[in-house]
Amino acid sequence: MWRAITLIILTGVFLSACTTAPKGPEHAVNLTSQLEKVAEIRHWQMRGKIAFRQGNEAASLNLVWKNDSGDFDFRLSNFLGVSMVDLNVTSKQSSLTADGETYYDADPELLIYKTTGIVIPVAPLLSWVKGLPLKDDTFTLTDKGLVNTLESGCMGCSNWSVKYGQYGKVYTDEASKGADKGNEENGAWLPHSITLTQAETSLAPQTQLKIKIYEWLAL
Predict the structure, then answer these.
(1) At CA 45, angle to CA 140 and CA 213, rounded to 5?
(2) Which of 16-25, 32-41, 156-165, 183-192 shows the lowest per-residue confidence on average (mean pLDDT)?
(3) What distance in Å separates the CA atoms of residue 215 and residue 190, rounded to the nearest whole number?
(4) How far is 211 from 2, CA to CA, in rounded Å?
(5) d(Cα 77, Cα 7) in Å, to the nearest integer?
(6) Considering only CA atoms, which of 177, 166, 210 is closest in space to residue 49?
C-alpha cells in the first residue's frame, strides 16, 4: 500500500482541530432545499487535514482540494508544507506526482489504486465530501435535518460508509452579494468533519479516512 508514495507513518494518529468548530444551524433545515443548494456548488475549494488508516498503518497530512465541475487538484503536504502527493484530474487525463515521479492514466480511480493500493470512488467522493448523497445511497439525518451518516449504494463504490459532523454555513459569491448572512435561506450547510470507512475484506484490512476541514470556499 502507498506503493509509490513515501509518507510519514504514524501510530494511532488522528485529527485534532486548532480552529473553532462551526456550530451548525439553530433550527431544522429544509432537506430538499439544502440538498439542492449543495448540488449547485460545483466550483469549490477546501483546506484542512486528512488522516489515513489501513490496518496498523496510519498517516496524517495537510490537504488542499480544488474542484471545478469534476476537474480537480488534490494536494497533500507534510507539516513543513512540502508537497507529498499532487493528484490532478481532468476529463481527458489524470496525473499523480509523488516521490519525484509522475504517473498518468485516463481513469483517476485506477491511477490511485496503481500508485497507492487503495480503491477510492473518486466521482462519488466529489458529492460525498459536500454531504450530498447519490441516487442509490441510503442516509440518516441529524436532529437539524442535515445528512448524518451515509451508506454507498452505487456500483463500484466498494461499500464505503460516511459519517458527518460540524456543519457550517458556506456562501457562494452570488449569495453573498448584498445578502443577509443571518438569513437561514442564504448559502448552504457543508460538513467540516467527515469520516469515510471501508469495511475489512479478504483482500484488505479496514480502511478509514478522516477529513477535518478548516476552510470551505464556494467559488
Answers:
(1) 55
(2) 16-25
(3) 10
(4) 18
(5) 10
(6) 210
Return the bridge partners of 89, or none.
Answer: 72, 94
| Distance in Å from the first CA to the final CA of the chain | 34
- The sheet carrying 207-218 orders its strands as 101-105, 94-98, 83-89, 71-77, 57-68, 43-54, 207-218, 188-198, 160-170, 147-151, 138-141
Using CA atoms, how far apart are residues 105 and 193, in angstroms rounded to an integer? 30
Tell me which amino acid residue 156 is.
G
CA distances from 116 to 18, 87, 93, 134, 151 (A): 29, 12, 18, 26, 24
* Residue labelled with grid coordinates 456500483: 155
Q: Could you tell me which of 29, 34, 53, 37 has the C-alpha nearest to residue 144?
A: 29
Rg over alpha carbons for the chain, rounded to the nearest Å, is 17
Q: What angle do CA 203, 207, 208 make, to 5 degrees?
A: 175
Q: Tell me the sheet residues that pair with 97.
A: 86, 102
Of the candidates 164, 212, 166, which has an alpha carbon nearest to the alpha carbon of residue 46? 212
Query: What's the predicted TM-score (pTM) here?
Result: 0.86
Retrieve residue 32's grid coordinates.
430538499
**Distance (Å, whole) CA 78 – CA 49:** 10
What's the pLDDT tens digit per position in 87-138? 999 999 999 998 889 999 999 989 988 887 777 888 899 999 999 999 999 9
